[in-house]
Amino acid sequence: MLKWRIAIGTAGVALGLFGVYRLFTQVPLDNLFALARWLIGAVILHDLILSPLVVGAGWAISRVVPSPGRGFVQAGLIIAGLITVIAIPMIYREDTHPRSKAILQQDYSRNLAILLGIIAGVALLAYAARVARDRSHRSVGLSTNDDASS
Amino acid sequence: MSALRSTARPRLWPRFGSTLRSTAVTARLGRMVGIAFGICFVTGLLSHYQYGPWSWLPEPARPLWGYRVTQGLHVATGTAAIPLLLVKLWSVYPNLFRWPPIKSIKHGLERATVFLLVSSALVQLATGFFNVLNWYPWPWGFVLVHRFLAYVVIGSILLHIAVKLPDIKYGLSQKVADGDVLTEIPWSDNPEAHSNAGPLPPPKTPALSRRGLLAATGAGVGAVVVTSVGETVTPLAPIGLLAVRQSKEGPQRVPVNRTAMQANVVNRATSPSWQLQVTGPRPFTVGLAELEALAAHEAHLPITCVEGWSVGAQWRGLRLIDVVERAGGDANSRIRVVSLEPDGAYNQSMLEGPQVSHALLATHLNGERLDVDHGYPLRLISPNRAGVLNTKWLSRVEVR
User: Fold this and answer.
1) How far is B51 from chain A (nearest CA, A)?
2) Does the CB of B288 have a partner CB in chain A at under 8 Å?
3) Does residue B112 sit at the A interface (CB-CB below 8 Å)?
4) Cβ–Cβ under 8 Å, residues B394 and B337
5) B360: Cβ–Cβ under 8 A, 6 or more apart, which residues?
6) Cα–Cα distance, A70 to A126 (Å, whole number)
7) Nearest CA of chain A to the CA of B44: how many Å?
């Protein structure tokens, strides 16, 4: 494995250095400073703002939402969150171009609402199906428990 | 010693108890992210080759949908990689809070490369997506930085794989439910860690299971792909709730990237005295009337934008090779086509090799005379060629 690790690592360092070298030789310095600000800003935005919000939301859900439905809430929110991340820039930029470009001409807030509605509906249906199944299982399960104890 | 290390950390320090996080989960998410970035890197290189092929290896004209597939894949995969990467980073978020922050020079170096990986990957995906939206809230030239930052991203991914290979092997060898719990304390420092506690039943996940987490991630990423990819996989256009482009909304059912107004060519392109100049061993000019009379060749060709949209269309016009031969050239000539557009990086383009024989100088699109936004009176359309290199509003063809 060590041989593989050295080979992959060396290839990675070489490719990365090539990229850094080309950036430094081809991109003007003031643009590089702007890029550096973006690189640092992206990590701050992700690590210090977005992630604490997500972790906090997860913690709150584990406190507030009772156990049988919690998994469905979590799954629904993961799917909804991932879609929303993509939709937000589109909502922000919709209708900013000439019509003939056929770009960002949709009502993305409405579209996002439709998608979130579908997710909520499917999560609710899945939860209802689980509850129904558990109920029928429980009536069967009780009798098997009786068998086991007797 | 290990117990000391974990007690020595600050009293107020984040604790991550979720049993959803596991090396087994991370390794699976990481594998998907790695594959996605690999696809983006290779298709990205192919796309850059479109813009500057070597003379001895000109861009082929077949398969005619080649660029449509590779660039559609590039943008769809890059878009899908955004939610995927966010879940992958969530799964290792506790690692940010390891104590002490830097144990040794080697450890510090590793964390620095992880910083480079996370920052470059986030910026690469975000700026790529914003480019698809034609949104440029930064001062640098997009293409150059996207191109060379890609090497930094792929390089730091490879380095990360090399550093983490034992963890990756462990994670992938475990069933998702059985793997250790990933917390802010590395399992090697934590005698109570699930991995160190001997043969135990899998960690309990009180609500959503790890498998459920991966399924929800797949569903979210899948939903993003299915609702956005209709801009290039046209049968999915009707459910394109998150599609950036809608082909049918463009003039003649084809989107436009640069309008005649933006290119500042409306007057010259619609002037009745327009002429096509053809230079070469036997130079000649073609006026509007003769152009219409010559335009008898039909072809069904996709037009593919670097930004990931594409659409098949019916084109009519003159075969480029016929024009080239009339000017005294042949299939081996190098051709430069020049636009009326006064400036702009793409007001001309070069053709060499197979594309010279397969390109069309188009006058009609989907049964109608070209819309001025599509390049009236004459534009280039060639198979397997980046959209912006199909120069519009032609004024000159140079045969060399």
Assistant:
1) 17
2) no
3) no
4) yes
5) B297, B299, B301, B315, B317, B318, B319, B320, B380, B381, B382
6) 12
7) 14
| 3-state DSSP assignment of residue A136 | helix
| Model confidence pTM above 0.90 | yes
Cβ–Cβ contact B154 with A under 8 A:
yes
pLDDT at B11: 87
Non-local (6+) Cβ contacts of A150 within 8 A are: none
* Segment A16-31, tens digit of pLDDT: 999 999 999 999 999 9
> SS3 of A103, please?
strand
Give the list of residues 6+ apart from residue A132 with CB closer than 8 angstroms, or none: none
Q: C-alpha distances in angstroms, B373 versus B73, B313, B390?
A: 27, 15, 13
User: What is the C-alpha to C-alpha distance for residues A104 and B319, in angstroms, rounded to an integer?
Assistant: 34
Give the separation between CA B277 and CA B291, rounded to whole angstroms: 12
- On the question of pLDDT at B146 being above 90, the answer is yes
**Terminus-to-terminus CA distance in chain A, angstroms?**
56
Q: List C-alpha distances in Å: A46 to B117, B122, B136, B258.
A: 13, 9, 20, 34
What is the average pLDDT value for chain A, to the nearest integer? 92
* Distances in whole angstroms, Cα of residue B280 to Cα of each of A66, B1, B319, B325, B329: 79, 82, 17, 10, 7
